[in-house]
Design brief:
This protein is mostly helical. The chain is built from four helices and two strands; from the N terminus they run ααβααβ.
Length: 147
Amino acid sequence: MKKVWVNDLFIYLGFLVVVSLVFVLGLQYQHFLKEEAIKTYQLETSVVFSVLFPIFFGLLLGLLRFFELLRKSGEWTINWLKLCIFGIPSLYVSLLPLLFWSGLSISYYDLPLGYLVITPGTTAHTISGLMFGFLLFYVIERKIKEA
């Protein structure tokens, strides 16, 4: 029993190191992209990265759940209710800046929650991206098939 606990400890510590490295390197790269955007006046790359990085990081955080599901047996299912209620709105809010920078002639007043595009800071987009990425592994379930 103690050996399993020690193995889990090393797995979690290794995962913590990987997550920390991705977080620090991602923030450094985002800072680099912002500096380049200031120099070149090309904001698209910085905006795309700032939208996609939280989604990727949320996926990374939910990866442990996926590995736990791989150990179980049963049929793979998706909790569509959870995905629709939490996933679609969080994806919408996190992708809203891309819609604004896409070049489409859409006013942010025309979009539901469009004011989030012009709010200072990226807190709403970051939290929504993290939530969506994390949720993608938490809507997947494994159910034992009953005979």
